[in-house]
Amino acid sequence: MDRRYTEDELIAKLFAPLAGPAALGLMDDAALLPPCVNPMVATVDALVAGVHFFPEDPADSIAKKALRANLSDLAAKGAEPIGFLLALALPPDWTNQWLEAFAAGLAEDCKAFGCPLLGGDTVATPGPLTLSITALGEAAQGSFVGRSGARPGDALYVSGTIGDAALGLRLRRDAALRAGLSPKARDYLLERYLLPRPRLALAPLLRTSASAAMDVSDGLVGDLAKLARASRVAARVTTRDIPLSEAAREAIAIDPTLFELALTGGDDYEILFCARGNASEIERLASAASAPCVMIGEIIAGDGETIFLDAQENIMKFNRLSFSHF
């Protein structure tokens, strides 16, 4: 077995190249950020092997998923990325090769999303691989999009397609379902579980048009309930309007019970938002930004209630609302 990097070596060789000027070459105890003209937005997500990803997942995909989950939160707030902090707890079996692939994946996304590394910490753990990213962003003055601004009369939109990642996770555990899908559908759903697509391109539209927004990370049904409670309103959704990919439709045709999983399973990292105005124009602007969205319902008077109507306009009941850690 080759000698492992020391902590100083892995910082200098693998992570310093990812750092922006504010990180001071990762040679100090903290980063020195220039003052922001606009308010700063901060968000943090922790990922644990065996909970948020499979231990055998590619190292570069794990790195990208961790960063993209945070970038999705920034996008939902209408914020532009500034940089991020990384805390990495490595289990006893880590190798130089694994860490090099992890850093390479992170480097690709740092460049792709304009989000440099600002600093962090690397430690050993006897437990599973654990990593936490804190992302910082900047929102234009007065344009932060919280969860609490929805009002009756707002239309309800969601970006992209819903349920792909949850179905991709099911495929990892269900060989029969995996075998029943076409190769194209199978590969698409598996990739959507591995690699979220943060909708940063939607942030400018949210800043100008959205009254409330959040990213869909724990499942559309449960996350809409969170938004409704925060805004002290109710929401009504027609499920036939929820956007599904061709791959998701193929899986649901094999097993119709998977439709509920698609709506409640989580890991979508799409944007759920409320807005007034011409729906066609909002959808056109989103498509022009390469972040397509569709209207799926409306905000109505109430106090946190959410109503999901099936194709016959009957109220749907769910076994659970969303993914939960506890």
TrEMBL record:
<feature type="binding site">
    <location>
        <position position="215"/>
    </location>
    <ligand>
        <name>Mg(2+) 3</name>
    </ligand>
</feature>
<feature type="domain" description="PurM-like N-terminal">
    <location>
        <begin position="28"/>
        <end position="138"/>
    </location>
</feature>
<dbReference type="InterPro" id="IPR036921">
    <property type="entry name" value="PurM-like_N_sf"/>
</dbReference>
<keyword id="KW-0460">Magnesium</keyword>
<dbReference type="GO" id="GO:0009229">
    <property type="term" value="P:thiamine diphosphate biosynthetic process"/>
</dbReference>
<feature type="binding site">
    <location>
        <position position="267"/>
    </location>
    <ligand>
        <name>substrate</name>
    </ligand>
</feature>
<feature type="binding site">
    <location>
        <position position="218"/>
    </location>
    <ligand>
        <name>Mg(2+) 5</name>
    </ligand>
</feature>
<dbReference type="InterPro" id="IPR010918">
    <property type="entry name" value="PurM-like_C_dom"/>
</dbReference>
<feature type="binding site">
    <location>
        <position position="29"/>
    </location>
    <ligand>
        <name>Mg(2+) 3</name>
    </ligand>
</feature>
<dbReference type="InterPro" id="IPR016188">
    <property type="entry name" value="PurM-like_N"/>
</dbReference>
<feature type="domain" description="PurM-like C-terminal">
    <location>
        <begin position="151"/>
        <end position="309"/>
    </location>
</feature>
<feature type="binding site">
    <location>
        <position position="73"/>
    </location>
    <ligand>
        <name>Mg(2+) 4</name>
    </ligand>
</feature>
<dbReference type="Pfam" id="PF00586">
    <property type="entry name" value="AIRS"/>
</dbReference>
<feature type="binding site">
    <location>
        <position position="73"/>
    </location>
    <ligand>
        <name>Mg(2+) 2</name>
    </ligand>
</feature>
<dbReference type="GO" id="GO:0009030">
    <property type="term" value="F:thiamine-phosphate kinase activity"/>
</dbReference>
<feature type="binding site">
    <location>
        <position position="217"/>
    </location>
    <ligand>
        <name>ATP</name>
    </ligand>
</feature>
<feature type="binding site">
    <location>
        <position position="121"/>
    </location>
    <ligand>
        <name>Mg(2+) 1</name>
    </ligand>
</feature>
<feature type="binding site">
    <location>
        <position position="45"/>
    </location>
    <ligand>
        <name>Mg(2+) 2</name>
    </ligand>
</feature>
<dbReference type="GO" id="GO:0009228">
    <property type="term" value="P:thiamine biosynthetic process"/>
</dbReference>
<keyword id="KW-0547">Nucleotide-binding</keyword>
<keyword id="KW-0418">Kinase</keyword>
<comment type="similarity">
    <text>Belongs to the thiamine-monophosphate kinase family.</text>
</comment>
<feature type="binding site">
    <location>
        <position position="52"/>
    </location>
    <ligand>
        <name>substrate</name>
    </ligand>
</feature>
<keyword id="KW-0067">ATP-binding</keyword>
<keyword id="KW-0808">Transferase</keyword>
<feature type="binding site">
    <location>
        <position position="73"/>
    </location>
    <ligand>
        <name>Mg(2+) 3</name>
    </ligand>
</feature>
<keyword id="KW-0479">Metal-binding</keyword>
<feature type="binding site">
    <location>
        <position position="29"/>
    </location>
    <ligand>
        <name>Mg(2+) 4</name>
    </ligand>
</feature>
<dbReference type="InterPro" id="IPR036676">
    <property type="entry name" value="PurM-like_C_sf"/>
</dbReference>
<feature type="binding site">
    <location>
        <position position="43"/>
    </location>
    <ligand>
        <name>Mg(2+) 4</name>
    </ligand>
</feature>
<dbReference type="Pfam" id="PF02769">
    <property type="entry name" value="AIRS_C"/>
</dbReference>
<dbReference type="GO" id="GO:0000287">
    <property type="term" value="F:magnesium ion binding"/>
</dbReference>
<dbReference type="InterPro" id="IPR006283">
    <property type="entry name" value="ThiL-like"/>
</dbReference>
<feature type="binding site">
    <location>
        <begin position="120"/>
        <end position="121"/>
    </location>
    <ligand>
        <name>ATP</name>
    </ligand>
</feature>
<feature type="binding site">
    <location>
        <position position="323"/>
    </location>
    <ligand>
        <name>substrate</name>
    </ligand>
</feature>
<comment type="function">
    <text>Catalyzes the ATP-dependent phosphorylation of thiamine-monophosphate (TMP) to form thiamine-pyrophosphate (TPP), the active form of vitamin B1.</text>
</comment>
<comment type="pathway">
    <text>Cofactor biosynthesis; thiamine diphosphate biosynthesis; thiamine diphosphate from thiamine phosphate: step 1/1.</text>
</comment>
<feature type="binding site">
    <location>
        <position position="147"/>
    </location>
    <ligand>
        <name>ATP</name>
    </ligand>
</feature>
<feature type="binding site">
    <location>
        <position position="45"/>
    </location>
    <ligand>
        <name>Mg(2+) 1</name>
    </ligand>
</feature>
<keyword id="KW-0784">Thiamine biosynthesis</keyword>
<protein>
    <recommendedName>
        <fullName>Thiamine-monophosphate kinase</fullName>
        <ecNumber>2.7.4.16</ecNumber>
    </recommendedName>
</protein>
<dbReference type="GO" id="GO:0005524">
    <property type="term" value="F:ATP binding"/>
</dbReference>
